[in-house]
């Protein structure tokens, strides 16, 4: 909307002369054209790698600016980035980071090739999607077929609910990955799992596992998931994948599978 663009232009005018500032990337609803009248403007402020190190060493990763200056309730929601940050996001960014760049628009830039780099962050090759499916299937299989069962046998209500949450998250994320859909964050999962192609009864089974955590609902969901996406994932492969994606992420320099 026009008032959002005015607010963005005013923000850029206020930062472009800073020697550290290299670009402003618009993300979120304003970039996608789905903003409301009172939406804030979300941006990545791209600064030099030296500026990024200086700010983040001081604990400054995100902030807001221009509160109420451009339209009622307005503000600019800013996240800090740098060229090195963007290159790393392209190589190993998790889903929420990649999803934040979906539909992004470079509003100001002194960096050659930035438009192409930003577009590539939100894209993944088929091989990466396939590996995500395997990872999430392994998560679901261990949480639903092992930890949840142990919790029920021990009468450990916490373990039952903990495992059930991880099972349903993994099952939904496997469905999203199969459809090549990024997961922006947990608050979007319940909606997104209903927007991608799934076998008949899968979403209903997923809903039941969410609402009625326990071995019966978990077994039904897990069986449906394995029939759909579990072909070729042996028990040994499941265990190794789970350990790789959880217990050994510190060794590999990554993040646990649920944060991919």
What does this 3D model show about the protein?
- This protein is an alpha+beta fold.
- The protein has 2 domains: 2-121, Beta Polymerase, domain 2; 126-259, Four Helix Bundle (Hemerythrin (Met), subunit A), CATH 1.20.120.
- The protein is 57% helix and 11% strand.
- It contains 13 helices and 5 strands.
- The chain has helices spanning 2-15, 28-32, 49-57, 83-92, 95-100, 114-121, 126-154, 157-178, 189-192, 202-211, 215-229, 235-245, 249-252, and strands at 21-27, 41-47, 62-65, 76-81, 105-109.
- Strands 3-4-2-1-5 form a 5-stranded mixed beta sheet, sandwiched between helices.
- It is elongated, with a radius of gyration of 21 Å.
- The count of DSSP E runs of length 2 or more, i.e. the number of strands, is 5
Mean pLDDT: 95
Please name the CATH topology of the largest domain. Four Helix Bundle (Hemerythrin (Met), subunit A)
CATH C-level label of the largest domain: Mainly Alpha
**How large is the share of residues in beta strands?**
5-15%
> Helical region count?
13
What spatial order of strands do you see in the largest sheet? 3-4-2-1-5
What is the CATH architecture descriptor of the largest domain?
Answer: Up-down Bundle
pLDDT < 50 stretches: none
* Biggest sheet overview: 5 strands, mixed
Name the helix and strand elements from N-terminus to C-terminus, one letter apiece.
Answer: HEHEHEEHHEHHHHHHHH
Structural class: alpha+beta
Shape: elongated
Helix content: 55-70%
* Rg (CA only): 21 Å
